[in-house]
Amino acid sequence: MIEAVGLTKRYGDKTAVYNLSFQVRPGAVTGFLGPNGSGKSTTMRMILGLDNPTAGHVTIGGYPYRKLPNAPRQVGALLDAKAVHGGRSARNHLLSLAQLSGIPARRVDEVLGVVGLHQVAGKRSKGFSLGMGQRLGIAAALLGDPQVLLFDEPVNGLDPEGILWVRNLMKSLAAEGRTVFVSSHLMSEMALTADHLIVIGRGQLLADMSVKDFIAANSAGFARVRTPDTEPQAREKLSAALTEAGGHVLPEQDGALRVTGLPLPRISDIAHDNGVRLWELSPHQASLEEAYMRMTQGAVDYRSTTDQKAGLQQPLPPGAQPPVPVPGQGQPGWYPPPPPQQGQPYAAPQAPAGAPEANPYAQPAGQPGQQAPQAPAAPAAAPANAPSAADLTKPEDAR
User: Which range of residues forms the domain containing residue 147?
Assistant: First the structure.
């Protein structure tokens, strides 16, 4: 078990972690979440004794990492997949780690097989891709068959098959009773992998609970309601009726309504009483990503701004209407709706496969005062004494 008590780390006048206390218990995959710069990597480095805390302490199995007897046999970690001597082969890299920790050499071949690198074991690691480097780092973490494992962004650079493999590996390790602590920014992957979450922001603890409880505490489901597109007056009528009944209604960009505060049967009854036909009435359960964004929106240090495209925006084509702003969009607590499912009759038409995307900087066709481009003229017949392609031997002639 990993236990942090009052953990604090300062770098000069910068406080990376402040008064952080939590426990990572065995038998479960614990996800470690937080925005960039929130202190996740610093916390992991303090757990492994790579950084000394300014205040507080952290222990593994009741001991600081530096006092663990033969720590590599008890704790395995992947913090930086690039921390490998590029001139060594994968096997020699793991063999050197094994010899330093008194691990039998046969274990090297075992973990190479576990991570799928046995066929490239003799190749130098400097030629490895990011995904192969991640697999080599995971192999190093598993080398001593430890009971405690820490992984910082273990799926970076992996293909879908590799991501699935890491997910199943984490779950199987936890099922064996090991302590598994995983940091990641992929919310969808954490929702499928983690059993418990520890969330920090600006170095402080924001949440320490199960995934299910975290979603329930930091998000609210809503109903997605759609009326016929040919009856805009019905949409306004229904919106007013739902608001009068105590619901909170927000329009979505595709014309649907997002309704909170009313159960689906009540929404259906209100629509029926007002004579409004419904094309859609569906529940939407919040995802881990939505709950995470809602909780951490005040702890994000790096925010993007709207691209004004000063001097680059082209005039709208004749008859085109500017986009209508959606009320509530950009405000705290507002999140875009999920994309429409394929096969829905009201889904926006998709561009045909292979069709070129519109160039936002191209001059719109049909502008007043512009002429349509002329089709290129057919090439003239080559003279009888013109050289053939085989005669063009010089690169400049070939051009």
Answer: 2-210
